[in-house]
Amino acid sequence: MKKPVRVTITGAAGQISYSLIFRIASGSMLGPDQPVILQLLEITPALPALNGVVMELNDCAFPLVAGVIATDKLEEAFDKTDYALLVGARPRGPGMERKDLLTANGGIFGPQGKALSDYASRDVKVLVVGNPANTNALIAASAAKSLDPKQFTAMVRLDHNRALSQLASKTGTHSNDIEKMIIWGNHSSTQYPDITNTLVNGKAAKGLVDQNWIETDFIPTVQQRGAAIIKARGASSAASAASAAVDHMRDWALGTNGKWVSMGIPSDGSYGIKPGIVYGYPVTVKDGKYEIVQGLEVDAFSRGKMDATEQELREERAAIEELLK
Ligand SMILES: NC(=O)C1=CN([C@@H]2O[C@H](COP(=O)(O)OP(=O)(O)OC[C@H]3O[C@@H](n4cnc5c(N)ncnc54)[C@H](O)[C@@H]3O)[C@@H](O)[C@H]2O)C=CC1
Ligand SMILES: O=C([O-])CC(=O)C(=O)O
What is any Pfam family matched here (predicted)? Predict the structure, then answer.
């Protein structure tokens, strides 16, 4: 057995965590031979509910769980942590855009970024799930003065998985048959799910579906999927969000073997997206490091969509600029 690693989950008594914690504990994220110490953070009023989650976690008698800490203190939750999943934040309700949560949630991520900087492992990998995820990741990274901003990522993997599922259904294939999907930009209704380079069983996806379906069905369906789930369930996506978080962290920790996945990461000028925002890019991961897939051609249609979602992220940044100081 390997030495245990520490995994922090915030918002640990919430609905995403109710799925996420148990998936991590069972080994889905870091593998069946990797013990974990779970460091669960909640706000003080939610500690009794969190205690119930811990009781259930204990009742699972998971072989890989080497310890559980349940706390409302940042320094305990982030102490020496190797993987931090920042889920805790208010979810949106019907009729809201995710950026409407900026004021409610923005204030959470500065203190958490600082605590990561002060207490976490120097190699910590951070995934922000709480919305608006890209801009919250920017806030956390900016507050973490002693860490590299590249250690902070935002979740667009749920969008990526939704796009795989839509395309598989349209082409009568399985998502396993699909490679090179991309989600560019913001985890919001301006995101750009891009199948220009996508292959289905080795064939160009663009040759299998028509442009009208891409523009009037595929892209809006993926962009609006979160809202559709809220309408259907009366609450935002939880199990699928947890599953995407597991996928994101597993691929970052264990590598993608050349496979492309989408991650929200600090923009570095690639594809004309200037630094200063956290933007969804296609990446591959090797030895715990992600790299942007380079050299893709961008046509005028894609350029327009990539610029629009960049523009929205710049506006979100402007709205919270004072939190970045
Ligand atoms: N990036 C993505 O793809 C997705 C993001 N989300 C977002 O994830 C977030 C969580 O969603 P749910 O679990 O459904 O919400 P929830 O309301 O069920 O749970 C959130 C939990 O966070 C806790 N919390 C609030 N402030 C906190 C703080 N400062 N520190 C620690 N915990 C804190 C709350 O007490 C609550 O238990 C929401 O912002 C939601 O919009 C949801 C789905 C997908
Ligand atoms: O739509 C929401 O507010 C929750 C979310 O981020 C998603 O399901 O993609």
Answer: Ldh_1_N
Report the alpha-carbon distance of residue 108 to residue 139 in Å, rounded: 9
Candidate from 229, 231, 243 with most ligand 2 atoms within 8 A of CB, to mutate: 229
Kindly indicate the confidence band of residue 100, based on its pLDDT and cuts at 50, 70 and 90.
confident
Say which ligand is closest to the CA of 102: 1
Which of the residues are catalytic? 187
CATH 3.90.110.10 fits 156-319, yes or no: yes
- Helix, strand, or coil (residue 214): helix
Mean pLDDT of 240-259: 98
Which ligand does the CA of 264 lie closest to? 1
Interface TM-score (ipTM) > 0.95: yes
Provide the token pair at 164. Answer: 């795989």
The answer to whether residues 177 and 168 touch, using CB atoms and an 8 Å cutoff, is: yes
CB of 224 within 8 A of CB of 189? yes
- Ligand 2 atom closest to the CA of 159, numbered from 1: 9
Query: Does the domain made of 5-154 have the CATH classification 3.20.20.70?
Result: no
Give me ligand 2 centre to Cα 257, in Å. Answer: 28
Is the pLDDT at 49 greater than 90? The verdict is yes
pTM listed for this prediction: 0.98
The alpha carbon dihedral of 289, 116, 235, 305 has a sign of negative
Other beta carbons within 10 angstroms of residue 246's beta carbon come to 20
Cα–ligand 1 centroid distance for 62 (angstroms): 25
Residue 69: Cβ-neighbour burial (10 angstroms; 0-12, 13-18, 19+):
middle
Q: Is 249 in the pocket of ligand 1 (CB under 6 A)?
A: no
Whole-number Å distance, alpha carbon 11 to ligand 1 midpoint, is: 6
